[in-house]
Design a protein that fits this description.
Helices cover about 30% and strands about 20% of the residues. The protein has seven helices and nine strands. Strands 1-9-8-5-2-3 form a six-stranded parallel beta sheet, with helices on one face. The chain has a three-stranded antiparallel beta sheet with strand order 4-7-6. Strand 6 and strand 7 form a beta hairpin.
C-alpha cells in the first residue's frame, strides 16, 4: 500500500522530500554503510535539492557514504540547460561534501546507446554483479501524460524485463533519452513520487484511482516487489482526489 502525503504547497512538498532523503540516508548508512539514491530531473525537485543543501539538513548526511545516480537523462552535454545532472550539480552537488567519485552521471553527450552501456558500467561499479541494482531510494516525477523517468505511454521500453538501462526516443519531445528500466525501479527499497501543480491533477487521479491502464499510465507500473512507495504531492495536484 502506497503512502500518500498531501502537502500545502510546493515549498512544503520540497521540505518533506528533503527530510525524506535525509531519513532514508541515515537509515541506509546505519544498516548497510552506504546510501544509494537515484534522483529525478524536472522542475519539481529543484527546490528539494536546494533545501537538502541547506546546512540544517546537509550536515545530517554522511556524504562520503552516499552514491548518487539519476533515474534518467536527456541526450545533451552536462553543461546544457536541459541536463538533469547540471540542475542537480548547481542546486546540490556543489554545495555538499560528496566525493566526485560518488557521483555517477549519465553521459548524455555520448551516442544514446553508448551512454546506456556506460551507465550500466557505473551501476556495476557500485552494485557489482547483483541481478539488478537495489537502490535505497529513487525519486520520481510524473509527467502530464503519466510517464516516469523516460518511460513514456505506449513505449516498448515498458515491457523490458532484463536490461538495467535503455536508450529511448521520446516521441513527444523528438529527442533521445537514457533511462533506468522498470525492473530496476521496482527493485528499490523506497520510491518517492514528487508531484506538484494543477496541471497534474487529472492524470494523478487517473493513476491513483482510475482503472489499471499501465501501458497508457506508466506510473501505475511502479509496484516494487519488496519496497515502499510514497507519494508526496501538493494540494493543487491532489485537487481531483
Amino acid at each position: 500500500m502506497a503512502d500518500l502525503q498531501i502537502l500545502e504547497n510546493t515549498k512544503a512538498l520540497a521540505q518533506a522530500a528533503a527530510e525524506h532523503f535525509v531519513a532514508a540516508a541515515e537509515d541506509a548508512i546505519d544498516k548497510r554503510g552506504r546510501f544509494t539514491v537515484a534522483l529525478s530531473g524536472g522542475s519539481t525537485p529543484q527546490e528539494t535539492y536546494r533545501r537538502l543543501a541547506d546546512p540544517s539538513l546537509a550536515t545530517r548526511v554522511s556524504w562520503r557514504n552516499v552514491q548518487l545516480f539519476w533515474g534518467d537523462e536527456r541526450s545533451v552535454p552536462p553543461d546544457h540547460p536541459d541536463s538533469n545532472y547540471r540542475m542537480v550539480r548547481k542546486t546540490l552537488i556543489q554545495k555538499v561534501p560528496i566525493p566526485q567519485t560518488n557521483v555517477h552521471r549519465i553521459q548524455g553527450e555520448l551516442d544514446p546507446d553508448l551512454a546506456a552501456e556506460a551507465y550500466v558500467d557505473e551501476l556495476q561499479s557500485v552494485f557489482g554483479s547483483e541481478e539488478r541494482p537495489r537502490f535505497d531510494l529513487i525519486f520520481l516525477g510524473m509527467g502530464k501524460d503519466g510517464h516516469i523517468a523516460s518511460l513514456f505511454p505506449g513505449s516498448l521500453a515498458l515491457r523490458e524485463t532484463e536490461h538495467w538501462v535503455l536508450a529511448v526516443f521520446a516521441e513527444a519531445f523528438q529527442a533521445w533519452r537514457v533511462t533506468l528500466t522498470l525492473p530496476v525501479l521496482n527493485s528499490a527499497r523506497q520510491l518517492s513520487f514528487l508531484v506538484a501543480g494543477e496541471s497534474k491533477a487529472d492524470r494523478l487521479q487517473e493513476v491513483l484511482e482510475g482503472e489499471p491502464r499501465p501501458e497508457s499510465l506508466p506510473a501505475q507500473i511502479i509496484q516494487p516487489r519488496s519496497g515502499q512507495v510514497t507519494w508526496l504531492i501538493d494540494q493543487a495536484a491532489a485537487a481531483k482526489l
